[in-house]
What does this fold into?
Amino acid sequence: MTVLEFDHAVTDYRLQHAYWLARAAKLAYDDEATIRKTTREWGFDRCEYFHAELDESFPIEDTQAFAAGSDKMVIVAFRGTEPKKIKDWLSDTNTLAAPGPAGKGLVHLGFSRALDSIYPQVRDAVQRFRDDDQSLWFTGHSLGGALAMLASARIFFEDPQLLPDGVYTFGQPRTCDRLLAGPYNEALAARVFRFVNNNDVVPQLPPEPVFHHVDDVRYFDSSGKLHEKITFTAGLTDKFKGFTSDAFAPAADGIRDHMIDRYVELIQKNL
It folds into this structure.
């Protein structure tokens, strides 16, 4: 199917919009000049780029994101990271918990610190860009998906007037405990869409019971078909079709399924 132009008037869930937000999540990996040029081509007349170095106590060196605004829409996209590095983030002391937004529950310490490094600039850009009641969207892949979820939670719970219209994440790891997941799911019901591709290993980490996913999942099966609902048993059976023993091996199914290019491809295939 031919993909239509980026529709800035969208205010609800559409797979076409998921495609463009996946493109935005992919764009967040690029350099500032490419981000500014591409967002202009997509019809956004305002763009801010965020980049902050992290201290040496964490495996990932920096946090990167961008905000883009038009007369109808504001999007915030966070960059992900390499699977080998996300493995380091999801292990050892980096899985210690930090207080959640507005004191609600607990969140992954590493993710919290990464977001803290750029959150004030992100919040200020959203407030400036959203000057005429534009719709507000958060997106990200991998680590970027975790940051998109946490940023959307923080911006709403600290300022309920900034309710996001949608949060679309791709290959997002578990990010928080139940005491944040519950209020988040209630406040952003029918606004959060967490895309998971078959055996993508990152959404399986860090392990339960401390960390939990937020709703609402959209699942690509081993043949690439998108399911809006799938039972636990059916999902488990499907995952075994592509299973390999080392989920972090370069050629493993868990890594192949995690790539942002694969998410973009599968969404386009399902349009």
About this structure: The chain is about 35% helix and 20% strand. The mean pLDDT is 89. The longest helix spans residues 143-158.
